[in-house]
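Narrative summary of target 7.
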Amino acid sequence: MIPQLGEEEAQAAAEAIRSGWVAQGPRVARFEQEFAAAVGSGHGVAVSSCTTGLHLSLVLLDIEPGDEVIVPSLSFIATANAVRYVGATPIFADVDLATGNVTVETVDAVRTPRTRAVIAVHQGGVPFDTAALRKAADGWGVALVEDAACAAGSTVYGQPAGTGARVAAWSFHPRKLLTTGEGGMVTVDDASSAARLRRLREHGMNVSAADRHASKQPVLEAYLETAFNYRMTDIQAAVGLVQLGRLPGMVAQRRELAARYHSLLADVDGLVPVRDPAYGQTNYQSFWVLLDGFPVSRDEVLVSLAEQGISARRGIMAAHLEPAYADVTPGPLPVTERITRDSLILPLHHKLTGEDQEHIAGVLRGLA
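Modeled conformation, tokenized:
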């Protein structure tokens, strides 16, 4: 992934610096409003990363030690880590082979009386079935947190991913389409939830630093609960506002590149490329292929691609196989382990040319 940044972002960051307001301030507030509107949510709360956004989401829901939170193992390790940050126990659910996402069935298979929440991931930008999982979560009486780290620009049932979510966390890391360098956002529809999230990201203060400095009268703030320093800077938000304007074009370009991959790889036996689910469209934040009867192992494919100057990566990690979770004994996760073993992510970025894609497809075809 190569960030799509240009002179407009550089100018916006420079203007923020020249303004003298470089910490969380008016540009953050504007970015929150515009991003929330773009994803169909009532309120946005900018934070320092998606990881901190997931942490605050669980604090908001009062998840605590003794609680269980169901998560996919097939996700970047931050998804599971956030559960441990609040002292709760992550319970790993398996995923659907085609989308890489948890489903009602895979979540229900590991649900217990101690389940308080589910974190479902829109994996690699491929949306999960929000309607089905939200309905199931409501019926079970558990909270649903949507890990939308990769999902800016994806759609579900014709609406932006995140529309109608009780709480969703987003990433603006450079590997995402919309980037602020580091940074993230939590979106919620409920005003009181947004207000608490803003306190939680800023040491628990009952008035923000920006409002305090803007006041013409002395403001004696109070600290209402033990909280955190998870703020975004105005410099980051300035870049984010420009990136938000670019987002529709970036998604359209990535979908064109993905369509070309689908065409070029159609005759390569043993490769199953990621595709849109029936209920939505992916932004193709990642373009992965699953090896299904391919004559060469995934790791051998990566070596062969590297020897031809092609920078591909292994597929999505499985947290339960990492040393950090060696103390966890999950139930069977056959689909998760198959995807993490047999998938790889092909290059997909705004500088990728048709010739590049033909070269990549040619190398894969030669290995089949």
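Residues 234-265 form the longest helix (32 residues).
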